[in-house]
């Protein structure tokens, strides 16, 4: 009896389904393990990065003592300082840990943990750099951290990306393309026009550059991390062009970030730079992640109200950090603080003459 074989012809739609099915879906146990691995890597990253600020600042201060061209003025003499390189090595190790954390956990988890680096840098700067924040500066830093934490806790959780093809589909979204182009335009405008004019006057200029480019760094790290993880599982994602584009974005953005972050640290107080940088960076990363992964559709009214309150708390913290940073305010002198008397304005000769005429008129009228 003849044997007949059944041949199944896959249509394009069925072939796509089979291809997507070949991507292994993580189990609940694996997702939990990935969460804790990403959390641990993120904490280790913040420790290294927070410490690196102190070493790099020490190197920049040593360069200033030697009368070299400072980083804030566009100089690169700090490349000869071993203390700066020690900080650079710490930052590279921290960035690698941060890079790996994005491969295991979501950006909405990893990015906000940068608050640990803010706290660590403030503690170490007060110990080794003799930098002080006044009372309102400390309150402002706490408000920045708390406000960002509220934003993170009530932000929608991002959907996991399991392959470069999945990420490419999300990147092609018109809303994300428009926002990415707008963010890049802000960064380029700040670098070309605002940085030369106002970089030495306000720390916000350098922070905007580092934060906007940092958002692209995070998205690039997330994509490259997915490529590495999928390649390790047996599916080579480095044959996809998007992987190399994302890798190039990460390298270019990190180089720009390091340059302008050095300028910020050389020009301004470390205890002021780190919390403001954390606030801007975290807010932009969460905003771009929400747009890319579309979690805003699942937000309730309570979540939206809480997000707004968290953002206003951050704005208040930034205001306290910047508006009162040069004032000597502490718990010791706070009970004795009082409004300074306003100096009396000297009267002009014309004003004295008018007052004298009015006085004479009053005397004549009374007589």
UniProtKB/TrEMBL annotation:
Q: Where in the cell is it found?
A: Membrane
Q: Which keywords does this chain's UniProt record carry?
A: Membrane, Transmembrane, Transmembrane helix
Q: State which residue ranges cross the membrane.
A: 35-55, 76-93, 175-194, 203-228, 240-260, 272-292, 304-324
Q: Which domain of life is it from?
A: Eukaryota
According to the UniProt record, one GO cellular component term is: membrane
Q: How does it sit in the membrane?
A: Multi-pass membrane protein
Q: Extract the InterPro entries matched here.
A: EmrE-like (IPR037185), Mg_trans_NIPA (IPR008521)
Its main subcellular localisation, reduced to a broad class, is: membrane
As one GO molecular function, the record gives: magnesium ion transmembrane transporter activity
Q: Which Pfam families match?
A: Mg_trans_NIPA
Family per record: Belongs to the NIPA family.
Q: What is this protein called?
A: Magnesium transporter NIPA2
């Amino acid at each position: 009896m003849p044997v007949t074989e059944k041949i199944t012809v896959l249509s394009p739609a069925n072939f796509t389904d089979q291809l997507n099915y070949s991507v292994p879906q993580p189990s609940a146990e694996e997702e939990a393990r990935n969460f804790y691995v990403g959390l641990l890597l993120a904490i280790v990253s913040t420790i290294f990065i927070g410490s690196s600020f102190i070493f790099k600042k020490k190197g920049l201060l040593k360069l200033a003592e030697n009368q070299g061209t400072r980083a804030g003025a566009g100089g690169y003499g700090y490349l000869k300082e071993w203390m700066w390189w020690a900080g650079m090595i710490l930052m590279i190790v921290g960035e690698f840990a941060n890079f790996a954390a994005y491969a295991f956990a979501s950006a909405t988890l990893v990015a906000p943990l940068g608050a640990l680096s803010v706290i660590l840098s403030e503690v170490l700067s007060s110990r080794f750099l003799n930098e002080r924040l006044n009372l309102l500066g400390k309150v402002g830093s706490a408000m920045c951290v708390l406000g960002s934490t509220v934003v993170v806790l009530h932000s929608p959780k991002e959907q996991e990306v399991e392959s470069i093809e999945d990420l490419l589909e999300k990147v092609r979204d018109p809303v994300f393309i428009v926002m990415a182009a707008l963010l890049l335009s802000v960064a380029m405008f700040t670098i070309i026009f605002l940085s030369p004019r106002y970089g030495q006057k306000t720390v916000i200029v350098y922070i905007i550059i580092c934060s906007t480019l940092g958002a692209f760094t995070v998205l690039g790290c997330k994509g490259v991390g997915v490529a590495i993880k999928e390649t390790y599982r047996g599916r080579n994602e480095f044959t996809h062009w998007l992987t190399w584009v994302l890798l190039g974005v990460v390298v270019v953005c990190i180089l720009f970030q390091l340059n302008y972050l050095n300028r910020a640290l050389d020009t301004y107080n470390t205890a002021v730079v780190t919390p403001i940088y954390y606030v801007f960076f975290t807010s932009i990363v969460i905003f771009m992640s929400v747009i890319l992964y579309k979690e805003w559709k699942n937000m309730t009214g309570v979540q939206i109200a809480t997000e707004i309150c968290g953002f206003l708390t951050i704005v208040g913290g930034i205001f306290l950090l910047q508006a009162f940073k040069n004032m000597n305010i502490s718990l010791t002198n706070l009970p004795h603080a009082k409004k300074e008397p306003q100096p009396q304005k000297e009267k002009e000769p014309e004003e004295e003459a008018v007052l004298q005429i009015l006085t004479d008129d009053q005397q004549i009228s009374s007589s």
